[in-house]
Specification:
Keywords: Isomerase. GO terms for molecular function: isomerase activity. InterPro entries: 6-hairpin_glycosidase_sf, 6hp_glycosidase-like_sf, AGE/CE. By secondary structure, this protein is mainly alpha-helical. The chain has a domain of 141 residues: Glycosyltransferase, CATH 1.50.10.10. Helix content is 49%, strand content 5%. It has 13 helices and ten strands. The protein has a two-stranded antiparallel ribbon. β4 and β5 form a beta hairpin. α8 runs parallel beside α10. The two termini are 25 Å apart.
């Protein structure tokens, strides 16, 4: 496999564009600092005020810890203290000291479940903190890996299981595309930080099932919901089409995200001499093409719709910020992999949209949701809790496809 570099006239080669990305990243970090509260990190509202009523949430604490570990590796002042705060919360009040694993938050109901999605982010946060050299990060990483191995990774199914009751009873029969996608992301990071090739093999097994089998048979849009035998549940959440994590139908934004992850996986395996199937790069291109075709401006307005039905017609047409972040990052990755100028054009178009509609120059960060006329809306994503997607979108275009984000930044800083 020949890894091609971006063409000379690409924005990715222009110092001014890289500087602009860096400034956007720093602006996002400054806004996100307000999410720090006593026992971790909380959701932020549209003006950057923390939701003290809900308290510290584990998903936000993990994502903030990961993001500030990346900032720490970049040399952004104040970031190390944010990472250490997150590590203390994940070691302490957010962790289930009785049964192991992590609660959904400091005020989680006893009925709340332990989700693979959340635990993948704890592992990602711990691995990034280890790459950043933070004290106590290695112990958290060991704990997170043990939980993934003991409860979530299923060797027989070659995938991550979905969720349990807090005492690890009552395994959910549902199997999730979203949790396994972020499981692949965690696997890529763990392979680098733990120096263990099994995580790349697991990432490949998940990707083959989710993309080369199921997405390929469904128009190269990921299938999101499955039963315990990995049969698609096409009507799942038909009555809740705008669910934040398990929406009905298919999600173009996840096709972009998967396209990027397949290229990272291909590059990671190539880097250490592992065999790669040709479909990794081929399916990445097909996913991107399908997402653009069914998601971009399909209702006559700029932007990417949140979901489509099985006939690829828009269901929830709101524009969510994370879909644009992933679209831009996927375009950059595909341009880096193929050298195709068409991906450069998509990259520019996505960032032009982000600049025009999503960046909130009055109150900070990005609007997390827009309506069909590209005006701020709050029906699916209230407030601005998510640093992770937008911040990574400012970093990924400037880095190689492998190693994974934190390890790449550590090597850039001379730490790895």
């Amino acid at each position: 496999m020949e890894l091609l570099t971006a063409t000379t006239n690409s924005w990715l080669n222009l110092p001014a564009h890289r500087h602009w990305l860096a400034l956007q990243g720093q602006r996002l970090l400054e806004f996100a600092k307000a999410s720090r509260i006593d026992n971790g990190f909380a959701d932020l509202d549209n003006r950057g005020r923390p939701d003290l009523a809900s308290g510290a949430l584990t998903i936000q604490t993990a994502r903030m810890t990961h993001s500030f570990a990346l900032a720490c590796l970049q040399g952004i002042p104040g970031s190390a203290a944010m990472v250490d705060h997150g590590l203390r919360a994940l070691h302490g009040p957010l962790r289930d000291a009785c049964h192991g694993g992590w609660y959904a938050g400091e005020r989680a109901e006893p009925s709340s479940r332990k989700q693979a999605y959340l635990h993948a982010f704890v592992a990602l946060a711990a691995s990034s903190a280890v790459a950043a050299g933070r004290p106590d990060a290695a112990a958290l990483l060991d704990d997170a890996v043990q939980i993934l191995e003991r409860h979530f990774w299923c060797e027989e199914e070659q995938a991550f299981l979905e969720s349990y009751a807090q005492d690890w009873s009552d395994l959910e029969r549902y199997r999730g595309g979203n949790s396994n996608m972020h499981g692949v992301e965690a696997c890529l990071a763990l392979a680098d930080v733990c120096n263990d090739v099994k995580w790349l093999d697991r990432a490949l097994a998940i990707s083959e099932r989710m993309i080369h089998q199921h997405a390929a048979a469904a128009g190269y849009l990921p299938v999101e919901h499955f039963d315990a035998q990995w049969q698609p549940l096409r009507d799942y959440n038909h009555d809740r089409p705008g669910d934040e994590f398990r929406p009905y139908g298919q999600t173009p934004g996840h096709a972009f995200e998967w396209a990027r992850l397949l290229l990272h996986l291909e590059a990671a395996r190539h880097r250490i001499g592992l065999a790669n199937p040709s479909w990794l790069a081929e399916d990445a291109q097909r996913l991107f093409a399908a997402a653009c075709q069914v998601g971009w401006t399909v209702d006559g307005q700029p932007g990417i719709v949140y979901t489509v039905d099985w006939q690829q017609r828009p269901v929830v047409a709101q524009r969510l910020h994370w879909t644009l972040a992933e679209a831009a990052a996927a375009a950059a990755a595909l341009h880096q992999r193929t050298g195709d100028a068409g991906y450069e054009q998509w990259y520019r178009e996505f960032w032009d949209y982000i600049d025009l509609y999503l960046i909130d120059r009055e109150h900070g960060s990005w609007h997390h949701e827009l309506d069909t006329c590209n005006r701020p809306a709050w029906t699916i994503w209230p407030g601005k809790p998510d640093l992770y997607h937008a911040y990574q979108a400012t970093l990924l275009p400037t880095l190689p496809l492998a190693p994974s984000l934190a390890t790449a930044l550590a090597r850039q800083a001379g730490l790895g």
